[in-house]
Amino acid sequence: FPVSLSLRTTAAGVRLCPEPVAEIESLYQQTWAWQNQTVAPGSDLTSAVSGECLRIEAILQPQGASSCSFVIGDVSVTYDFTTAQLSCSGQSAPLVLIDGQIKLDIIVDRMSLEIFADDGQIYMPVKTNLTSAPDTLKLDTVGGNVKVVELTVNRLSSVWNKN
């Protein structure tokens, strides 16, 4: 997916940070949004969400959970609060809580996931095939609750069908 690049000063020094281009907003078809919700293990906050192509923007805080996952079809994007690791399909990256929370931006396409964390400080492209997976999204937690500070999910139209 096209990204914009910017230089940012981080705790680790100056870094090149990719983020999805703003023009993605022209592809939004339907939006679901939540704020200040508590998600407990086994709950189903995002049960109404469906779609092959999505943009998921989330700010999450642990409230006793050892991990939380966005389960997209049959693929999980997992953050482990105990090890401070973000992982998906065999890839992982360290991701430290900033002000007690994580910030994720996930672009879901039929053949890939592109995961951005903390405004592009982490970028994890993941090749996957979601064409035979269900068009579902679930926010799952393990070991306790997670507070959804903000969660916005947008169903995206195809860039090839834009007029």
Main beta sheet strand tally, sense and closure: 6 strands, antiparallel
Number of strands: 13
Run of helices and strands? EEEEEEEEEEEEE
- Poorly predicted runs are none
Helices, by number, come to: 0
The largest beta-sheet arranges its strands as: 3-13-4-9-10-11
Structural class: mainly beta
Mean pLDDT: 92
| Helical coverage, percent range | under 10%
Radius of gyration over all CA atoms, rounded:
15 Å
Topology:
Elements: E1 3-10, E2 13-20, E3 28-39, E4 54-63, E5 67-72, E6 75-80, E7 85-88, E8 91-94, E9 102-109, E10 112-117, E11 122-127, E12 137-142, E13 145-156
Antiparallel strand pairs: 1-2, 3-13, 4-9, 4-13, 5-6, 5-12, 6-7, 7-8, 9-10, 10-11
Concise summary:
The protein is mainly beta and 163 residues long. The chain is 0% helix and 59% strand.
Describe the structure.
The protein has 163 residues and is mainly β. It is built from no helices and 13 strands. It has strands at 3-10, 13-20, 28-39, 54-63, 67-72, 75-80, 85-88, 91-94, 102-109, 112-117, 122-127, 137-142, 145-156. The strands form 3 sheets. A 6-stranded antiparallel beta sheet has the order 3-13-4-9-10-11, with no helix packed on it. The protein has a 5-stranded antiparallel beta sheet with strand order 8-7-6-5-12, with no helix packed on it. It has a two-stranded antiparallel sheet with strand order 1-2. It starts with a strand and ends in a 7-residue tail after the last strand. The mean pLDDT is 92.
State the main characteristics.
59% strand, globular, mainly beta, 6-stranded antiparallel sheet, 163 residues, 5-stranded antiparallel sheet, 0% helix
